[in-house]
Design goal:
Length: 224
């Protein structure tokens, strides 16, 4: 499949993450899907093509929102893909809930006082893992009964820090899929993770999941 790429939007050709996660996500056929950080819109558009009735794609940059909208039009799913400029869940309507929420996160942990100077850096760096903490803290409020919260992660990120955040919120992490890919001179381990309440919280949460804990310029066109 071919995709439009707007300047300033992180290209899915830079790493294998988009291709892998898009193939691994268990899209809720007939359900409601939310992608955080949609970028070019490959995963959100694929969700619509795979049978999701309602897809919401949000990104913090206007260029990415426009890029997602373009690719939804390119593949004929505009009526089922809603695009919003949003910092995580901020721009959603109060009653918006989803059967599956997915974020291919900006895994590189930067110092807490680090400030991105270019919009494209927002797709790569998370200062002090503040955004990851917000995603884990607030994501469950946006899940419908039986909904699932998924995170795309890789070995360039700080998995220990992610586990610490999860433990502090009484959550556990379950790996759903994984693969290693070469990135230049080094290997990157990609993992699709599911977040769920710990067993002592599971009796009061409505996620419907019970996984075990995890172990520690011009527009160009691209083909995935």
């Amino acid at each position: 499949m071919r995709w439009d790429l707007v300047p300033g939007v992180f290209s899915p050709l830079h790493t294998a993450s988009t291709e892998l996660f898009t193939s691994w996500v268990p899209y809720p056929v007939g359900g409601r899907f939310l992608e955080i950080g949609s970028g070019t819109g490959v995963t959100a558009v694929t969700a619509a093509l795979r049978g999701c009735a309602q897809v919401t794609a949000v990104d913090i940059t206007e260029a990415a929102v426009r890029n997602t909208r373009m690719n939804a039009a390119r593949h004929g799913v505009t009526e089922r893909v809603r695009t919003l400029r949003s910092d995580l869940f901020d721009a959603l309507e109060p009653g918006d809930q989803f059967d599956l929420i997915f974020w291919n996160s900006n895994v590189v942990e930067a110092p807490r006082d680090f400030e991105c100077t270019r919009e494209i850096e927002l797709a790569i760096f998370d200062s002090g893992y503040v955004t990851h903490e917000r995603f884990l803290r607030n994501g469950f409020e946006r899940l419908a009964d039986g909904g699932r919260l998924l995170l795309g992660f890789n070995s360039l990120g700080n998995l220990d820090a992610l586990h610490s955040i999860a433990e502090g919120l009484d959550l556990r992490i379950q790996p759903l899929a994984g693969a290693k890919r070469q990135a230049g001179s080094f290997e990157v381990d990609f993992q699709l993770l599911e977040l769920a309440p710990s067993r002592r919280r599971s009796g009061t949460a409505g996620t419907g999941t019970s996984p075990t804990a995890a172990p520690r310029g011009q527009i160009s066109s691209a083909t995935l």
